[in-house]
């Protein structure tokens, strides 16, 4: 049977997702959301389906949740007023009763939603076991600026071992915004604080936190990638950021600084936001990392697999000369790579011809989705720098497809006879590459 454009698109899409599936299996993700997310039934049901899918892919999941609107509703029912200072609720004894009530009801509701398994629904066949418990030891926040926060607490310790044991057993762990003290008291905690501490304690690979509005730059455009240092500075300045966004940013940045590999702020109102962020190349949220997401650096032996994946399609269509793994491994010291979020998206090599005081720029490649962003030029620049360091006087390149690119980079077309003599002997006349040279 012939394939259709639709089926082809599906297969292509599925193949694009495959590397992420491999990469995420067995990893630990903490997903955190406020009570607002749970309050919107329809949207939350979809989110639960996504959680189910992530669990089915073998991702170890810890869900951390808050309950602000649910607590508000309880307080209203009791004709009590909320008091917030520094964005944190002051929990007195009466409010604490409302907090316990809200947390208890929410836990049952969350467990019920995660237990669904209706046929003909995305949850069909799902058998999620949910583990919830007293994983958080808390202490009172105390008196700040003369205000006693009473039963509002902060995380003192996370029982990471207990959480890991449940994850090892294949269960999804549910951690509420409630902590217990060794004296048996109950504390109401900020869910963002719980999420940060849980993610650090279980050494999560990712912390995903939902928020109402994502951080944006001065021109209103999404800040899609930030280092933890940049994010923390932004959160502290909080210029233009809504307070809940600043708070979320601060907690996820701290988690990253304390060792969580990646944090992602996700827009709560976008359906499938977690899937879009995790399984598409450009994502949808703000990603916070310890180091810049993108790095131009000398290649290491571990990069050989990534370089091969990048250049094989270009070898197959004749753009680049074939190099096998052994050759690449032996020549890896000549290479530089550009890495984007752990994936090699660009490479280039400089081969030195010391007698001729020249260097060949070879195997220059940028992954299709990353072209026209200056990566090629940066790779060329770093090779030229290397050449200067070795006191070479010129660089040259042989190309069949990128003649104009080299011209635009200041190269001049030349003759095979202009190449170093040992390189002339290796020249492949059948391939007929054009020669470009540049004085440096
Ligand atoms: C050549 C290559 C490395 C350029 O990488 P890149 O990161 O897209 O390049 P830059 O962003 O620095 O430069 C982009 C500019 O070059 C132009 N350009 C890109 N590839 C080109 C090509 N093959 N021929 C002519 N111009 C090209 C773009 O149109 C763009 O021009 P603009 O700024 O006027 O819009 C990339 O296209 C590639 O990997 N090609 C396949 C492999 C190859 O041919 N390698 C060279 C042989 S060693």
What would your notes on this structure say?
By secondary structure, this protein is α/β, with parallel strands linked by helices. The chain has two domains: 287 residues, Carbamate kinase; 145 residues, Gcn5-related N-acetyltransferase (GNAT) (Aminopeptidase), CATH 3.40.630.30. The protein is 39% helix and 25% strand. The protein has 15 helices and 23 strands. An eight-stranded mixed β-sheet has the order 5-10-2-1-13-15-16-14, sandwiched between helices. Strands 17-18-19-20-21-23-22 form a seven-stranded mixed β-sheet. Strand 19 and strand 20 form a beta hairpin. The chain is elongated. The chain starts with a helix and ends with a strand. The mean pLDDT is 93. Coenzyme A binds next to strand 20, helix 13, strand 21 and helix 14.
Index terms:
440 residues; alpha/beta; Carbamate kinase; Aminopeptidase; 2 domains; eight-stranded mixed sheet; seven-stranded mixed sheet; binds coenzyme A
Topology:
Layout: H1 5-24, E1 28-33, H2 35-39, H3 41-56, E2 60-65, H4 68-77, E3 84-85, E4 88-89, H5 93-114, E5 130-132, E6 136-140, E7 143-144, E8 147-148, E9 153-158, H6 160-168, E10 172-175, E11 178-180, E12 186-188, H7 191-201, E13 206-211, E14 225-227, H8 228-237, H9 243-257, E15 262-267, H10 273-279, E16 286-289, E17 294-298, H11 304-316, H12 325-331, E18 335-340, E19 343-353, E20 358-366, H13 375-389, E21 394-399, H14 403-408, E22 412-414, H15 421-426, E23 434-439
Helix pairs in contact: 4-5, 7-9, 8-9
């Amino acid at each position: 049977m012939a394939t259709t454009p639709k089926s082809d698109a599906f297969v292509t899409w599925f193949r694009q997702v495959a590397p992420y599936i491999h990469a995420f299996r067995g990893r630990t993700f903490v997903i955190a959301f406020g009570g607002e997310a749970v309050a919107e039934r329809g949207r939350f049901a979809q989110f639960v389906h996504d959680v189910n899918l992530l669990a089915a892919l073998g991702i170890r999941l810890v869900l951390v949740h808050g309950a602000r609107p649910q607590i508000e509703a309880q307080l209203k029912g009791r004709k009590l007023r909320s008091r917030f200072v520094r964005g944190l609720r002051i929990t007195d004894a009466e409010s604490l009763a409302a907090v316990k009530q809200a947390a208890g009801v929410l836990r049952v509701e969350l467990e019920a939603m995660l237990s669904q398994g209706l046929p003909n629904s995305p949850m069909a066949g799902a058998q999620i076991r949910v583990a919830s418990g007293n994983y958080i030891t808390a202490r009172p926040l105390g008196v700040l600026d003369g205000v006693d926060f009473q039963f509002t607490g902060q995380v003192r310790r996370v029982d990471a071992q207990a959480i890991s044991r449940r994850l090892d057993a294949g269960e999804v762990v549910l951690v509420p915004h409630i902590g217990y003290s060794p004296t048996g008291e109950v504390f109401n905690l900020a869910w963002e604080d719980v999420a940060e501490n849980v993610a650090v304690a279980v050494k999560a690979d990712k912390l995903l936190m939902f928020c109402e509005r994502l951080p944006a730059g001065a021109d209103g455009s999404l800040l899609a990638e930030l280092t933890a240092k940049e994010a923390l500075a932004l959160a502290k300045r909080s210029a233009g950021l809504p307070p809940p966004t600043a708070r979320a940013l601060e907690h996820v940045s701290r988690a990253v600084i304390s060792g969580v590999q990646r944090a992602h702020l996700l827009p709560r109102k976008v359906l499938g936001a977690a899937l879009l962020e995790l399984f598409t190349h450009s994502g949808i949220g703000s990603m916070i990392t310890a180091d810049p997401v993108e790095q131009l650096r000398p290649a290491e032996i571990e990069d050989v697999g990534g370089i091969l994946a990048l250049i094989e399609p270009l070898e197959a269509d004749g753009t680049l000369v074939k190099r096998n793994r052994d050759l690449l491994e032996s020549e890896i010291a000549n290479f530089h790579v550009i890495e984007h979020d752990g994936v090699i998206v660009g490479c280039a090599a400089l081969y030195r011809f010391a007698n001729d005081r020249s260097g060949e720029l070879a195997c220059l490649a940028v992954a299709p989705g990353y072209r026209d962003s200056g990566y090629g030029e940066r790779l060329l620049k770093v090779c030229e720098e290397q050449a200067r360091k070795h006191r070479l006087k010129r660089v040259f390149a042989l190309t069949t497809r990128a003649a104009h690119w080299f011209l635009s980079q200041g190269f001049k077309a030349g003759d095979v006879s202009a190449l170093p003599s040992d390189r002339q002997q290796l020249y492949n006349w059948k391939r007929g590459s054009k020669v470009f040279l540049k004085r440096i």
